[in-house]
Amino acid sequence: MRPLAHPTLLSLACALAASASATAQTIHPVLDVKGGYLVGAPVNGTWREGQAIARQVRAGRRYRVFSGTAEIGTRTGTRAVSLDVPCPETFDVTLEPRRESGEIAIDASWNVLPRRVTWMSQSAAAASYAGAVREIVARHGIRNADARVTGAVRADLDGDGTEEVIVTAHRQTADGSFHVGAGDYAIVFVRKLVAGSVRTIMLEEEYHPRAAGETTPNKYAIAGAYDLDGDGVMEVVLRGSYYEGGWTSIHRIRGTTARKLVSVGCGA
Questions:
Q1: Which of 26, 91, 194, 268 has its CA 20 to 30 Å from the CA of residue 83?
Q2: Against a cut of 0.85, is the pTM above it?
Q3: Are 29 and 93 in contact (CB under 8 A)?
Q4: Do residue 101 and residue 121 come from a single domain?
């Protein structure tokens, strides 16, 4: 005769199953719409990269799609699939029907854009932040720099009522493959008002005071600012690229400290 399951063990098994189900439901995958990457997800308060959660990202999830300033629709995602060679650790999720526009997509119920995000014009960004770019690169040996501001986005990241500004700038004078020119650079920084003073918080940076071969320069672009984990604070999403590849990263700013939460991409 088969023994009956002990009530205590049966209750424990049911609790574990319920816990596993609840854990699976707390995964909120973030996708780079343009690149197709499964960037990562906040899981019970901790960020994990796409590779770590790929097996739990199955077909049928509903994703909210966002431009840099607004929610622009919903799409159904496929399961996460490895890009294989040369990037087996990078996973792709396809949105159906296909969407060409949009910056990020997320399976989430909270307010992903809790505050206004303003994309500055190229001329306004250059006029406002060229001086800051020169100051930053001068500290790294590039004097009298050619300040090429490539983008700026304003948003109140932490909800304190004062907007921060995310700025990108790069100078690339060589062929963009395996050489850099003297005075080339690529930077991303945030300007934040702290106790009445403007502070500069670096997110990405590289400096080339001298020309060099066998060096692949990077450049960066802003994909937006969004609350990607539901805590009311907006994370910064960046795209990086180089001659044979690119990646997407998510950054958190607490006070005057920046932390890269996840990064995923593909390249030779």
A1: 26
A2: yes
A3: yes
A4: no
